[in-house]
Design a protein that fits this description.
Helix content: under 10%
Shape: globular
CATH superfamily: TolB, C-terminal domain
Structural class: mainly beta
Strand order of the largest sheet: 1-26-25-24
CATH architecture: 6 Propeller
Radius of gyration: 18 Å
Length: 317
């Protein structure tokens, strides 16, 4: 299959990093709590050669990390210290996670759908429409303990041919959905955000975190989960001029999020407790490694890792 010839990230105005190449994060005074989480302050580059790396997901039973390189329409994997191709083409996948059986669950811009991929790389489309109308371009997601898949659906993958295929918004909004793979039921959970983007849930599943990256809105919000529904929205942080794109919780409920050319960490009381500077604009991150204490970071062209004295939420028992 022939590939589009694309400019380097720093030269292409369509690349999410382009507008931020001359912007830098403000200084943050790290708390003792945050500094104690850092086994090493070194941000280690593992791989470079992407255009916009996104959606890292760790597969515990394979000790493998997979992630997306959206403009290049492929997914990569890190296994046994080696980076290789996981899927090529990937149909412009963006966010990825694993379900409770270890399958990879992916947001596809190209398919405007949610995919499930098993260990044999067999792919199944789980959901691709809302009331008979195409989804926009599913962006990020997580899987709850009950198996339901919560995902955001902004239009970034249908605005041009850079991260998908040009298309129209059919259902008239940008929603946060919950999909039950057993009942095949798709429910609207949030319908009043401009462009919902990153999403995750707290370890006790009592709090939902969602980023909104609409025009002049670069907010991270937290909701209480009440009777299975998000309520009582509160602002965690305004990231302008940058944005919160992708994030994960650790075992204690702290939120580690992309934040421009850095990672910011917020405690469960929504207080900023620390920041780590990264050489490139960060898109997303994931806890991985056999002990769940390696923070993998996708940042524009590169994959980085940071060793922590802390575990991701899904590794703690």
């Amino acid at each position: 299959m022939s590939k589009k010839k694309l400019l380097p990230a720093e030269s292409d105005p369509r690349n999410p990093s382009y507008a931020y190449k001359n912007k830098y994060n403000e200084k943050v005074e790290n708390t003792d709590q945050f500094n104690n989480y850092l086994k090493s302050a070194e941000v280690k580059k593992i791989f470079s050669g992407m255009l916009w790396g996104e959606g890292p997901a760790y597969i515990p039973h394979l000790d493998t990390l997979v992630w997306s390189d959206i403009p290049n329409n492929r997914m990569l994997k890190l296994s046994n210290g080696k980076v290789d191709v996981y899927k090529d083409p990937s149909n412009y996948t963006n966010g990825n996670t694993t379900d409770n059986s270890g399958n990879v669950i992916s947001c596809s811009h190209g398919g405007r759908c949610i995919y499930k991929t098993n260990d044999n790389l067999e792919v199944q489309t789980l959901v691709d429409n809302f009331n008979g109308k195409k989804l926009n371009s599913p962006n990020d997601l997580f899987v709850k303990s009950d198996g339901s898949i919560w995902f955001t659906d902004p239009p970034y993958g249908i605005l041009s041919d850079y991260e998908g295929y040009p298309g129209e918004q059919e259902y008239g909004g940008c929603y946060v959905f919950s999909y039950d793979p057993n009942s095949k039921k798709l429910n609207v959970m949030i319908n009043d955000l401009v462009r919902p983007n990153g999403i995750t849930i707290s370890p006790d599943e009592n709090k939902l975190y969602v980023a909104d990256t609409g025009e002049n809105i670069k907010h991270l919000y937290v909701y209480d989960i009440v009777d299975g529904l998000p309520k009582n929205r509160k602002l965690v942080y305004d990231f302008k001029p940058f944005f919160s794109d992708g994030f994960r919780c650790d075992k204690d409920g702290n939120v580690w999020t992309s934040a421009g050319k850095a990672i910011k960490c917020f405690n469960p009381q929504n207080k900023l407790i620390g920041q780590l500077i990264v050489p490139e604009l960060v898109s997303n991150l994931e806890f991985g490694g056999k002990n769940g204490n390696i923070l993998y970071v996708t940042a524009t062209t590169s994959l980085y890792s940071i060793e922590l004295n802390q575990q991701g939420a899904r590794f703690y028992e």
